[in-house]
């Protein structure tokens, strides 16, 4: 079963064809990072226009690289939400027209559920078993789910304020490191091997909810207290901030896994590309007799592969979108 997947939820145009829900036939991604960099964040209208320019050429290239014709496809999956409404509508309009024109079934996919599904693209031989606990950490969301099946994901807790990726982006902004913040903070943190600044661990204790705005404020206060900001001090702040985020993510995810007695944890979403966070989580899982599954770094950030993959499962189960399907931002 060959399914075309389209994701235009934010600032990446992702198109992919996946066979049988797990074999990537071809995948393309057009990043808009350079377009938004001068603004220090994603500008919704600029993003929608860029998707409109890029999507059809990317779709054509994806079919060509898969060596498939539209007639060879079995369905189309598109991100329905959450995301920026203008961006979602570009993907939905193209997916609907393509599916209608080619006589293919169409399915709408929840973007967060698609991130959760991306764990199956991990290099491990062993499949992801159910139920498991899934932590999704991205620019817009930080949440932990109990995944009973790919169709049945129950949200256990989420962030009370900023998402983890948002905190990375805001701290990078405070340090004038540019946008997006995650990759640059990770690079700077790697350069620091000294002592850490004891930033407060957010919402420790019995709650499973996350919170990152207090940590961001603590970083801002610390920066204000310094007479000047040396390169070494920036590395030290990045390393200490990243460790505080990792500590909080690990604590809450393990709490969820222990409460629900599961042995498998998955870590997905843009922030899951962070090697320190992956390693800290893997180590904590191992020492608690659990297994961590993470997709390859290239599939942590937004992509069409995860949408095609989860779309395949939903199409197989009989889910279909109506032709008047709307975005659910
Ligand atoms: O999943 P994603 O591509 O888009 C959303 O659905 O939000 O995640 C983007 C977020 C951004 O906030 C970015 O700073 C963060 O993921 N990110 C990282 C890393 N790479 C991307 N955060 C920490 N470390 C990274 N290496
Ligand atoms: Zn995402």
SSE order, as H and E? EEEHHEHEHEEEHHHHEHEH
Share of residues in helices: 40-55%
Counting helices, strands and paired strands, the structural category is alpha/beta
Shape: globular
CATH architecture group name of the largest domain: 2-Layer Sandwich
What hetero molecules are in the model? 5'-O-[(R)-(carboxyoxy)(hydroxy)phosphoryl]adenosine, zinc ion
Q: Count the E strands.
A: 10
Q: Radius of gyration, rounded? A: 20 Å
Low-confidence stretches: none
Number of helices: 10
Assigned CATH superfamily of the largest domain? ATPase, nucleotide binding domain
- Tell me the major beta sheet: 5 strands, mixed
CATH fold name of the largest domain: Nucleotidyltransferase, domain 5
- Strand arrangement within the widest β-sheet reads 3-2-1-4-5
Secondary structure layout plus pairing:
Elements: E1 2-7, E2 12-19, E3 23-31, H1 33-36, H2 44-66, E4 75-81, H3 85-102, E5 106-110, H4 111-117, E6 132-137, E7 142-149, E8 152-158, H5 164-174, H6 181-190, H7 213-225, H8 231-259, E9 264-268, H9 275-287, E10 291-293, H10 305-316
Parallel strand pairs: 1-4, 4-5, 6-9, 9-10
Antiparallel strand pairs: 1-2, 2-3, 6-7, 7-8
Helix pairs in contact: 2-3, 4-10, 5-6, 5-7, 5-8, 6-8, 8-9
The structure holds 5'-O-[(R)-(carboxyoxy)(hydroxy)phosphoryl]adenosine and zinc ion (ZN).
């Amino acid at each position: 079963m060959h399914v075309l997947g389209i994701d235009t939820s934010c600032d990446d145009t992702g198109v992919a064809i996946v066979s049988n829900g797990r074999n990537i036939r071809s995948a393309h991604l057009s990043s808009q990072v350079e377009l938004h960099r001068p603004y220090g964040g994603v500008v919704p209208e600029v993003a929608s226009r860029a998707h409109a320019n890029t999507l059809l050429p990317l779709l054509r290239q994806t079919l060509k690289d898969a060596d498939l014709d539209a007639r060879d496809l079995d369905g189309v999956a598109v991100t329905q939400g959450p995301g920026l409404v203008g961006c979602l509508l570009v993907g939905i309009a193209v997916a609907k027209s393509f599916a209608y024109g080619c006589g293919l079934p169409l399915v709408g996919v929840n973007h967060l559920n698609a991130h959760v599904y991306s764990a199956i693209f991990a290099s491990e031989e062993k499949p992801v078993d159910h139920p498991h606990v899934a932590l999704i950490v991205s620019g817009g969301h930080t949440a932990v789910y109990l995944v009973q099946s790919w169709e049945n994901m129950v949200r256990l807790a989420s962030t009370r304020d900023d998402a983890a990726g948002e905190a990375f982006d805001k701290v990078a902004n405070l340090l004038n490191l540019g946008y997006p913040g995650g990759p640059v903070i990770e690079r700077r943190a790697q350069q620091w091997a000294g002592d850490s600044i004891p930033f407060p661990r957010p919402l420790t204790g019995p709650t499973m909810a996350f919170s990152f705005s207090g940590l961001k404020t603590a970083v801002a206060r610390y920066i204000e207290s310094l007479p000047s900001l040396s390169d070494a001090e920036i590395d030290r702040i990045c390393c200490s901030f990243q460790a505080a985020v990792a500590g909080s993510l690990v604590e809450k995810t393990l709490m969820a896994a222990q409460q629900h007695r599961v042995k498998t944890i998955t870590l997905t979403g843009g922030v899951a590309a962070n090697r320190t966070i992956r390693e800290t989580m893997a180590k904590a899982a191992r020492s608690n007799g659990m297994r961590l599954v993470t997709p390859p770094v290239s599939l942590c950030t937004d992509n069409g592969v995860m949408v095609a993959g989860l779309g395949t499962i939903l199409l197989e189960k009989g889910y279909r979108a109506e032709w008047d399907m709307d975005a659910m931002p």
